[in-house]
TrEMBL record:
Gene Ontology molecular functions: oxidoreductase activity
Pfam families: adh_short
One GO term of the biological process aspect: steroid metabolic process
Record-stated family: Belongs to the short-chain dehydrogenases/reductases (SDR) family.
Protein name: RDH7 dehydrogenase
The encoding gene: Rdh7
Domain of life where this protein originates: Eukaryota
InterPro entries: NAD(P)-bd_dom_sf, SDR_fam
Length: 240
């Protein structure tokens, strides 16, 4: 009972802790065009953080800047492109101006295609893994020197639906890989005062995948299937 009470008291004290002196603390967030990343960028900006928001499109960046403070900066980022990652890292390095990076929040994700495994080709796995996992790892590695300088933190946002492997494709593979990468990085970075955590969030209205996109990919995959595979499933299976 004493142990349980001590643990409860510890949790209460820990959860009351707040970061002070937010001004001058830089946070880099990926996937800020829409959804959770977009909302987080605005929320942190209002609280005084120096937010650097990575967007996949020029339009996304412009719309975010139009409803944020002048201190919020945006940069284009394609996590499947090493050159794009290098340019974004250079931008963050210049913006932080020797202060280091207080936070890296990885939120960007690719979802489609999802389909029965033998409907897919290796490039279909790459289209998701290159963004969700390999791109995340690459940009994290390149930003570690800035994170260590500021004794900052890495926050990897993982949609809980990705932890249930109920359909083929790279989505669940990428989420499980993010968990493993985060767990090992957490142990290694503790020596440098860098915190690494995972936020396994649930469903958000802003982040629901458009069912039309899923259907579009399914139709495309169905049409390109070899006749023997298509016949083995049958039209009824596809419609259901």
């Amino acid at each position: 009972l004493a142990s349980i009470l001590s643990l409860i008291i510890y949790w209460l004290i820990r959860d009351r802790y707040r970061v002070r002196n937010l001004s001058g603390k830089y946070v880099f967030i990926t996937g800020c065009d829409t959804g959770l990343g977009n909302s987080l960028a605005k929320w942190l900006d209002k609280r005084g953080f120096c937010v650097i928001a990575a967007c996949a499109t020029e339009k996304g960046g412009q719309e975010l800047q139009s409803c944020s403070s002048l201190s919020l900066k945006t940069v284009n980022l394609n996590l499947a492109d090493s050159n794009s990652i290098a340019r974004a890292v250079l931008f963050v390095t210049k913006e932080t101006a020797g202060k280091g990076l207080f936070g890296l929040v990885s939120n960007a994700e690719g979802t489609a295609p999802v389909a029965p495994t033998d409907w897919l080709r290796i490039e279909d796995f790459h289209s998701v893994l290159d963004v969700n996992l390999l791109g995340l790892i690459e940009i994290t590695l390149k930003l570690l020197p800035l994170l260590k300088k500021a004794e900052g933190r890495v926050v990897n946002l993982i949609n809980a639906k990705g932890l249930m492997a109920f359909v083929g494709g790279g989505y669940s593979l990428s989420k499980w890989g993010m968990e493993a990468f985060s767990d090992s990085l957490r142990i290694e970075m503790r020596h440098f005062g860098v915190k690494v955590c995972i936020v396994e969030h649930g469903f958000f209205k802003a982040g629901v995948v458009n069912s039309g996109i899923i259907e579009k990919y399914l139709f495309r995959l169905w049409k390109r299937l070899a006749p023997e595979i298509r016949n083995s499933y049958g039209r009824k299976y596809f419609v259901n």
